[in-house]
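Annex B. Sample input.
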Amino acid sequence: MPPSGGFESIRLAQSILGELCDQIVEPSLFRRILAFRRQCKTFIQNQI
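Annex B, continued. Sample output.
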């Protein structure tokens, strides 16, 4: 179990990476992810 300081730095890095990803990925990949989720749900519904 890491010390609280290490945990805080991990959380900080995650939030920074999250913001970077939002800025970089948002326009094109986000739409692709949503489309993939729709396809996945449709696929699962078709299997049932």
